[in-house]
């Protein structure tokens, strides 16, 4: 299995730009907060089917997303691999996905993660420990991202999609370090990091909602 490439992610970014700006009206706020170089993790809330592609098309740098293996079916499998996305088995400790994700960070790339693990309310109420592990182990700052689409059902063709040509706000927050500065990677240290991450992500989401009126 080939590792994801930065060139593939750059192609994915181009596709994301075309699709997202063609079908919706993204308003991008705070993209300048994403470090221009070096490893970084984008932690995104997940309430719409388009959250991943939307971020791929609006982030200032190409993004490698960890995506559930169930999405890699039929022709989507080679396509998603080709644009630098990472398949992950959420039911187990997927060593290949972990290795590939750490490889992205080691190469100074951008890793995209849905900390909630699956699409839901998009409120960061339930975080998985994977985000803290990648942040601490990969030595990468976390940038919180809020993707906020319309909550009205009028104009929707598919449940879980914002109305076509509707405005979607993508709000980037300030980068922060998940660890406590000690470099510890124990279970206790990662649990403490998860709590800190959840507080920061929730605060950013609340701030983004107030600012955008969503």
Low-confidence stretches: 119-123
Q: Could you tell me the strand content as a percent range? A: 15-25%
CATH domain fold name: Glycerol-3-phosphate (1)-acyltransferase
- How much helix, percentage-wise, in residues? 25-40%
Count of all domains = 1
So, the CATH homologous superfamily?
Glycerol-3-phosphate (1)-acyltransferase
CATH class designation: Alpha Beta
Order of helices and strands: HEEHEHEHEHEEH
The CATH architecture:
3-Layer(aba) Sandwich
Mean pLDDT across every amino acid position: 86
Number of strands: 7
How many helices? 6
Sheet/helix structural class: alpha/beta
Main sheet record: 7 strands, mixed
The rounded Rg comes to: 16 Å
Major beta sheet, strand line-up: 1-7-6-2-5-3-4
Question: How would you sum up the global shape?
Answer: globular
The N- to C-terminal Cα distance equals 42 Å
């Amino acid at each position: 299995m080939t590792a994801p490439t930065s060139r593939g992610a750059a192609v994915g970014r181009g596709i994301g730009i075309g699709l997202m700006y063609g079908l919706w009206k993204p308003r991008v706020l705070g993209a300048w907060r994403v470090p221009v170089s070096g490893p970084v993790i984008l932690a995104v809330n997940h309430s719409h089917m388009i959250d991943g592609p939307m971020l791929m098309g609006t982030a200032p740098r190409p993004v490698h997303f960890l995506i559930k293996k169930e999405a890699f079916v039929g022709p989507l499998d080679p396509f998603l691999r080709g644009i630098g996305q990472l398949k992950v088995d959420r039911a187990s400790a997927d060593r290949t996905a972990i290795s590939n994700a750490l490889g992205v960070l080691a190469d100074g790339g951008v890793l995209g993660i849905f900390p909630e693990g699956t699409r839901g309310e998009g409120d960061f109420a339930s975080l998985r420990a994977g985000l803290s592990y990648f942040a601490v182990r990969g030595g990468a700052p976390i940038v919180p991202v809020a993707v906020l689409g319309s909550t009205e059902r009028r104009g929707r063709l598919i449940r879980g999609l914002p109305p076509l040509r509707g405005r979607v706000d993508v709000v980037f927050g300030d980068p922060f370090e998940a660890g406590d500065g000690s470099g510890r990677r124990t279970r206790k240290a990662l649990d403490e990091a998860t709590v800190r991450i959840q507080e920061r992500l929730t605060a950013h989401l609340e701030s983004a909602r107030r600012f955008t009126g969503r």
